[in-house]
């Protein structure tokens, strides 16, 4: 019993609405379902007559009287008695009976109802499927009553279970009401299959086809019924009880079939499951009866199939198989099937050759395809390596040449022909010879084959096209499926929703955010100086014409770059021509060369990033002009600029010029000075630093790095160098969302951490854990304060006693001792009184009448549970005591 109760509670029976119902004096938590339904559809306020079918204990009736106009007619009926509710007529009846209908008619007299409610649930703990079906029946019964008592335009509210009958019921509602909406109010538990359907604007047809209110016609599912009635021969011990009576038009319960039919049938399982007996009345089957194969066991089994076990069914199936083999039934069928196949015409030799050729062509095509794929993969690898700056384009050229044009650099051949000497001597005719060689080779190829190869190429191209299309389709499908998955997951998983929201908040959008900020700032500056905006628009249009890049991102960057009025022409050309990745990288490689004298490769790669490009180039160009490439000067210049803009933001005309210059503004933001970073500007780094300054370092990685820096084991440059991992250059453009999400989850950089750092963080967390929470600290402080107050009071009293001349010294000492001991002792806690929320205490808010001291409001169930728990504890103690004895 106790366990059952626990189970119910753990499911959330005593949830928020349960307590709310207790608090507000509703008899059932279901009251909130009607409140919420009414909030959505507003049908109670404008109703004068209401019938509640299945109304006990009366929660909905209470809500109805509260929300409907005063002196409305409210009638409630249920199988169980409903405790009286002021202004409500109730009676006890089964809504499926004629008597209930008569009683309702009597109460309603000539009135028509504005609302009929139905919250019936035959919840007697049967199987869910059974419950659902009976519920649906109950719904139809209540709908029938509603059609009789509802006024035109009236509302019918009913509970439906999401079962196979749900759609059928909806269809029926739609035949009778103009508006039908299914909804699940928040107070309805998610675990419950119930759903509420609000049917408004009753059509009130003059004649209703009785079939749409007849459960048999509405829920008829002949196939399923038949299937239900079949014995499951794989689990014959699980007997279905069929209380539905006879099937339509078939009034025999005992079904027989001739044994020979069983042997002949293609579906022996259904036959075994559907019949009661195999008979041997026909001539063929009589013969069968006499055969050796038909053993006594088989004969007995055939007599009553409904009592057979799994083994018996097996025997019958084996018997059938043996007979079929003897009669060669399977072979006959096989032959039939074979004959049904299309006759193959003999293939002549020409065709054979043709086929062979086609096969060869196909093979060749797939080989080429494989090769092409390999070459592509190789190319991709090279590009990746280039992106990681593992190689430079000149290396690639060599590499590529080496791979693709092996023949050109075929040293063996050269040495054999003594061509090397010729080459040394500057005789380039040899190269032409090689080229001619290639042509000759080509000529050697059979003309026919060349034709075929051409065809193959075309085919391949087509294949590739369709492959690409297929891949694109697949990708879109996967993207769609993923967004569907994300949506459904966010609907049912609150944690996931929270994570998504967090991700959105945390997501660092690279420099796009900054771009927005800059744009905003730009706008501000635009309004400050209109004349400048004019010149800017000019440069804008210029840039537009220049930016023909395919790549959106490249385009954006370019637009900004060209906007810079001070941009040197050289740079303009460089940026406008940097359309492809190759060009971009080539440019970078060139830059690397330029800076190679002063910076490490990693550092030059760092300053190669787009955001530094202009500044670096700017400075470099300047420096080039001045014939001085001193890095310190560059840095000094940058910090000088920053300091100046710090001093008077926008006021200074030169600074204003810079501000109007999108590029320079951005560069300054991207590379703030050290002080700016630690002062906590608006960018991500400074935000992180601000947090670190406020809360200290909170990750082991950060502590490790900080320690290494402090101990001079590593320098800032080392860390910057370390940042140039494959992670830093991973190009995420065009990758599907599901892939990126998965990567985010699994592909986390593995930064080195030390044991020391780990211990340090642990200690820090321990200290944090040890700190009392605010509430506890406050309570402790209060306690201390009260104790001090008590002692001061006692001290005061003690001085009075000491000064009392009427007391002897002994009396004084005794009284002071008592006083002090009382003051230092804390008061014993008074017991918590348990008050049951029933009778006058029902629905009371705050302290109940006549209750002093500490108390706790409980409902009857809770009190009973507590008692049961105590009983169990007592029992357990007793039994353990007995055990010991
Ligand atoms: C969930 S309760 C209704 C709660 C009610 N709406 C309230 O707020 O208090 C379902 C009720 O349906 C009643 N019921 C089930 N079958 C019934 C029938 N055939 N006739 C009348 N009442 C029935 C049950 O007795 C039960 O009290």
Automatic annotation (TrEMBL):
Keywords: Coiled coil, Methyltransferase, Nucleus, Ribosome biogenesis, rRNA processing, S-adenosyl-L-methionine, Transferase. InterPro entries: RNA_methyltr_RlmE, RNA_MeTrfase_FtsJ_dom, rRNA-MeTfrase_E, rRNA_MeTfrase_SPB1-like_C, rRNA_MeTfrase_Spb1_DUF3381, SAM-dependent_MTases_sf, SPB1-like. One of its GO terms (biological process) is maturation of 5.8S rRNA from tricistronic rRNA transcript (SSU-rRNA, 5.8S rRNA, LSU-rRNA). Gene3D superfamilies: Vaccinia Virus protein VP39 (3.40.50.150). Residues 528-551, 671-683 have a biased composition (Acidic residues). Residues 26-202 form the Ribosomal RNA methyltransferase FtsJ domain. Residues 236-385 form the DUF3381 domain. Residues 488-502, 511-527, 861-871 have a biased composition (Basic and acidic residues). It is found in: Nucleus, Nucleolus. Residues 482-583, 622-686, 794-885 are annotated as: Disordered. GO terms for cellular component: nucleolus; preribosome, large subunit precursor. The active site is at 159 (proton acceptor). It holds the Pfam family FtsJ. Residues 556-568, 872-885 have a biased composition (Basic residues). S-adenosyl-L-methionine binds at residues 58, 60, 78, 94, 119. Belongs to the class I-like SAM-binding methyltransferase superfamily. RNA methyltransferase RlmE family. SPB1 subfamily. PANTHER family: PRE-RRNA 2'-O-RIBOSE RNA METHYLTRANSFERASE FTSJ3, RIBOSOMAL RNA METHYLTRANSFERASE. This is 2'-O-ribose RNA methyltransferase SPB1 homolog. It comes from Thamnidium elegans. The lineage of its organism: Eukaryota, Fungi, Fungi incertae sedis, Mucoromycota, Mucoromycotina.
């Amino acid at each position: 019993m106790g366990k059952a109760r626990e189970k119910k509670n753990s499911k959330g029976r005593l949830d928020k609405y349960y307590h709310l119902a207790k608090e507000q004096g509703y008899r059932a938590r279901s009251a909130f379902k009607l409140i919420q339904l009414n909030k959505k559809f507003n049908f109670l306020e404008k109703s004068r007559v209401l019938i509640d079918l299945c109304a006990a204990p009366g929660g909905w009736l209470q809500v109805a009287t509260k929300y409907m106009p005063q002196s409305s007619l409210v009638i409630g009926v249920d199988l169980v008695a409903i405790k009286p509710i002021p202004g409500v007529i109730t009676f006890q009846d089964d809504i499926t009976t004629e008597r209930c209908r008569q009683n309702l008619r009597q109460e309603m007299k000539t009135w028509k109802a504005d609302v009929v409610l139905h919250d019936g649930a035959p919840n007697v703990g049967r199987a869910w499927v059974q419950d659902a079906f009976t519920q649906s029946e109950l719904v139809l019964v209540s709908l029938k009553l509603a059609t009789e008592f509802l006024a035109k335009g009236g509302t019918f509210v009913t509970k439906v279970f999401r079962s196979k009958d749900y759609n059928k019921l909806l269809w029926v509602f739609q035949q009778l009401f103009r508006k039908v909406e299914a909804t699940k109010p928040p107070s309805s538990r998610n675990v419950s299959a119930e759903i509420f359907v609000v049917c408004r604007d009753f059509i009130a047809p003059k004649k209703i086809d009785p079939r749409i209110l007849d459960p048999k016609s509405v829920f008829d599912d002949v196939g399923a019924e038949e299937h239900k009635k079949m014995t499951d021969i794989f689990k014959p011990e699980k007997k279905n009880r069929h209380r539905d009576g006879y099937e339509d038009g078939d009034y025999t319960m005992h079904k027989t079939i001739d044994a020979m039919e069983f042997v002949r049938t293609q579906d022996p399982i259904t036959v075994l499951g559907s019949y009661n007996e195999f008979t041997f009345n026909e001539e063929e089957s009589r013969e069968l009866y006499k055969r050796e194969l038909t053993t006594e066991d088989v004969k007995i089994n055939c007599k009553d199939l409904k009592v057979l076990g799994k083994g018996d069914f097996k025997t019958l199936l084996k018997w059938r198989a043996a007979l079929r083999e003897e009669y060669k039934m399977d072979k006959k069928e096989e032959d039939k099937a074979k004959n049904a196949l299309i006759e193959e015409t003999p293939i002549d030799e020409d065709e054979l050759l043709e086929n062979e050729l086609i096969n060869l062509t196909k093979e060749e095509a797939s080989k080429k395809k494989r090769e092409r794929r390999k070459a592509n993969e190789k190319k991709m690898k090279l590009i990746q390596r280039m992106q990681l700056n593992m190689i430079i384009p000149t290396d690639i050229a060599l590499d590529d040449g080496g791979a693709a044009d092996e023949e050109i650099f075929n040293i063996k051949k050269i040495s054999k022909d003594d061509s090397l000497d010729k080459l040394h001597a500057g005789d380039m005719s040899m190269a032409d010879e090689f080229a001619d060689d290639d042509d000759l080779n080509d000529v050697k190829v059979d003309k026919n084959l060349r034709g075929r190869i051409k065809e193959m190429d075309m085919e391949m191209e087509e294949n590739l096209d369709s492959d690409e299309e297929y891949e694109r389709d697949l990708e879109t499908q996967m993207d769609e499926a993923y967004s569907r998955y994300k949506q459904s997951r966010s609907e049912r998983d609150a944690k996931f929703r929270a994570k998504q929201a967090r991700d959105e908040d945390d997501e660092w959008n690279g420099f796009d955010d900054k771009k927005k900020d800059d744009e905003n700032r730009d706008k501000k500056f635009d309004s400050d100086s209109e004349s400048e905006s004019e010149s800017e628009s000019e440069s804008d249009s210029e840039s537009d014409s220049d930016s023909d890049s395919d790549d959106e991102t490249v385009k954006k960057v370019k637009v900004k770059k060209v906007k810079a009025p001070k941009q040197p022409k050289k740079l303009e050309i460089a940026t406008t021509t940097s359309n492809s990745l190759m060009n971009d990288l080539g440019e970078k490689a060139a830059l690397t060369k330029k800076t190679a004298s002063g910076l490490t490769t990693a550092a030059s790669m760092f300053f190669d990033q787009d955001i530094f490009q202009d500044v670096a180039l700017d400075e470099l160009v300047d420096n080039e002009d001045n014939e001085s490439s001193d890095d310190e000067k560059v840095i000094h210049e940058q910090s000088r600029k920053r300091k100046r803009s710090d001093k008077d933001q926008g006021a200074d005309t030169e600074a204003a010029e810079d501000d109007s210059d999108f590029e320079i503004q951005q560069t300054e933001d991207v590379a703030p000075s050290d002080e700016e970073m630690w002062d906590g500007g608006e960018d991500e780094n400074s935000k992180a630093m601000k947090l670190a300054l406020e809360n200290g370092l909170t990750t082991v990685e950060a502590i490790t790095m900080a320690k290494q820096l402090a101990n001079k084991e590593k320098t800032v440059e080392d860390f910057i160098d370390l940042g140039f991992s494959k992670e830093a250059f991973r190009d995420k453009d065009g990758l599907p969302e599901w892939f990126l999400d998965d990567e985010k989850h699994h592909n986390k950089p593995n930064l080195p951490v030390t044991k020391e750092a780990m211990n340090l963080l642990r200690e820090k967390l321990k200290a944090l854990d040890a700190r009392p929470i605010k509430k506890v600290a406050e309570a402790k402080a209060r306690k201390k304060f009260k104790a001090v107050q008590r002692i001061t009071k006692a001290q005061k009293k003690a001085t009075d006693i000491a000064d009392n001349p009427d007391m002897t010294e002994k009396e004084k000492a005794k009284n002071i001792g008592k006083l002090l001991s009382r003051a230092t002792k804390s008061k014993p806690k008074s017991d918590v009184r348990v008050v049951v929320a029933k009778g006058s205490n029902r629905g009371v808010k705050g302290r109940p009448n006549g209750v002093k001291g500490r108390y706790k409001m409980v409902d009857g169930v809770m009190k009973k549970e507590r008692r049961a728990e105590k009983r169990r504890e007592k029992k357990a103690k007793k039994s353990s005591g007995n055990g010991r004895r």
